[in-house]
Amino acid sequence: MSTRSYSLEDLLYLMQRLRDPDTGCPWDIKQDYLSITPSTVEEAYEVVDAIEREDYQHLKEELGDLLFQVIFYGQLANEENRFSFADVVDELTAKLIRRHPHVFPQGTLESKREAGQVADDTSINASWEAIKQQERKNKGSGGIFDDVPRSLPALTRGVKLQKRAAKVGFDWACSEQVLDKIKEEVDELQEAMAKQDSAEIANELGDVMFSCVNLARHLGQDPEALMRVANSKFERRFNQVHKQMGAQGKSQYSAEELEGFWQLAKDSE
């Protein structure tokens, strides 16, 4: 086994070898932009999962897997003479310099602000948004939501849509007003359920969920992260319930018995 320390250049060379039409890997040769997007999404979530579990040794591996996705796209684009990985790095660096004038005051990588000149969060955020808005105009993005990717997870995209609308003043004044809106939407959902109208139920339930996302945003919470935590909590507790069911050895349990198991699982935390 080699003891050398590999570099980014080695990884780029490896990717070229994998895609070599004569001596490369048959699976890698067959891939295109669209075929590897599921892996990209999966690897991004695995990075988040490792961070939330504070598994930093595993995080190193997951970051590598995510980096490989970027390398793969860069190789595909390079083969089609669209752009290279170096172009990706160049454009990213230029964009970050442009978006951080409080760090790079002359707009160059080497420029530095004078010691003691520290911008406050409010001015930084205002500058960041103004720069991004100008970038959207330069891209010819006409609609306010045009550059919000439709492929984002629904909760995450909901937050982005709400934030974008809030930038032009379309927002609730406080979280209490959002909570009132949720109650209103729940009432409308109950009315739809009473009528047993499946289409209206789906519509009203969606409004309830969208309003809950809005409340999370107003409370400074990430609804996607909240849902992951809630999923993990349910999984952990139900595993305890399942163990108790196995210990009893019965084939069926009453609702009261299952609720008792659930309460025991909650109390054990």
Please tell me about this protein's structure.
The chain has eleven helices and no strands. It has helices at 8-18, 26-30, 37-52, 56-79, 85-99, 121-138, 154-167, 175-195, 198-218, 223-248, 255-267. The relative contact order is 0.04. 68% of the residues lie in helices and 0% in strands. Helix 1 packs across helix 4 (56-79). With 269 residues, it is mainly alpha-helical.
List the helices and strands and how they pair.
Layout: H1 8-18, H2 26-30, H3 37-52, H4 56-79, H5 85-99, H6 121-138, H7 154-167, H8 175-195, H9 198-218, H10 223-248, H11 255-267
Helix pairs in contact: 1-4, 3-4, 7-9, 8-9, 10-11
Distance between the termini: 46 Å
* Element string (H = helix, E = strand): HHHHHHHHHHH
Radius of gyration: 25 Å
**Strand count, sense and closure of the main sheet?**
none
Average pLDDT level: 93
Question: In short, what is this structure?
Answer:
It contains eleven helices and no strands. With 269 residues, the chain is mostly helical.
Features:
269 residues; 11 helices; extended
